[in-house]
Amino acid sequence: MQCISISYQNTPLAIREKAALNDEKKLTLALSESFRDRVKGSVILSTCNRTEIYFISEKNADFAEQALADVCGVDISLLRRYIRIYPDGKGEKHLFRVAAGMESMLFGEDEILRQVKEAYDFSLKNHLSCYEINRLFQAAIHCAKEIKTNTKIAYLPLSVSTISANLCRSFAVENAIQNAKILVVGATGKIGSATVKNLLSMDCFDITATTRTHNSLAATFPKNIRTVDYKERYSFVDECDMIISATSSLHYIFTADMLNEKIRSQKPRLMIDLAVPRDIDSLVRNIENIRLFDIDYFRSKSEQNDKLRQGESVSMNEIISEHLDTVKKDMILHEYRSQHSDGEDSETMKYIYRLKSSLSAENFKRAIGFVKEAI
Questions:
Q1: What's the angle, vertex CA 357, arms to CA 356 and CA 358, rounded to 5?
Q2: Residue 98: how many CB atoms within 10 A of its CB?
Q3: How distant, in Å, are the alpha carbons of 42, 136, 139, 227, 361 from that of 332?
Q4: Boundary of a domain, candidates 264, 298, 332
Q5: Using omega within 30 degrees of 0 as the cis cutoff, is the peptide bond preceding 157 cis?
Q6: Where are the beta strands (DSSP E) in 37-179?
Q7: Same domain flag for 354 and 250
Q8: Which residue among 54, 148, 231, 292 is least packed, with the fewest CB closer than 10 Å?
Q9: Do residues 6 and 143 both lie within one domain?
């Protein structure tokens, strides 16, 4: 399988935008005569960070580059400055690395796996795939899932919202707080809404969110959360175990003086400030029983996790190599059987299956060559 790729790794945003393909453009490219007649099957993956065409063909990749340039309306000479070509034998490994998040801007991130699945499903739906495409994409998706399960990648979140929610859960466990009460200010913003969704998924918090327009929150979160007027936020701080603030305000949302005035009960409290500029007065750290974490803490934690994820690359590559070897042997056997379906005998096939189970893909290919010569 071959692949041509334009990605964030070497391509500026202005070019990536031109090369981005919606479903209509994907079909236009895949069904164009100059492309369709040269491939057995294809999958087109297009995200904000990459546009890639995976295809099975005996031709070199020139026609695929031209097809992409045509559908994007970009001069081929400009596009070729940025296109990376993965020839047959390398395109397969690139797909597995992409699906596992190893080629992503955030190493090991999960979103790309969903996007790979959707790209493959689109190909199936529109009858653009073939046996080789099916086996390789199914194997790559299965491999990526195994990597998430058998490495530490899934336990090393990179997003600020996920790390924040995890900190809330750890704080609740550490302080034996059942059904902890959380006040979220700025819950309809990008970071705030992502954090609330992570908290809701944990199903162990009683969430109150401030809003200036009640309907905006109702439309954002399908599950029931209590909404209160933003102006009344200080009225709820005493009952809360945790407070998260993620607004775009230019001034403090919570000051040390007002919190000292409004807090009456003495209990451990966690305050999380995800805003820039900061929402919470840094002097809040001096208030007894309050632990305050700001955006710098979460960014630092994200960077640490990214480094730890990079350290998992050896294990990830080992899993990819194992899955690649298996799928390559499957395709070698499929090719053999398609060429010898009339002349198979059971003893020969038993021998071939024993070879398949004991040899690497490279050696299995050689062995099949000897078997063909002997028939």
A1: 95
A2: 25
A3: 19, 13, 15, 60, 8
A4: 298
A5: no
A6: 41-46, 50-56, 84-86
A7: no
A8: 231
A9: yes
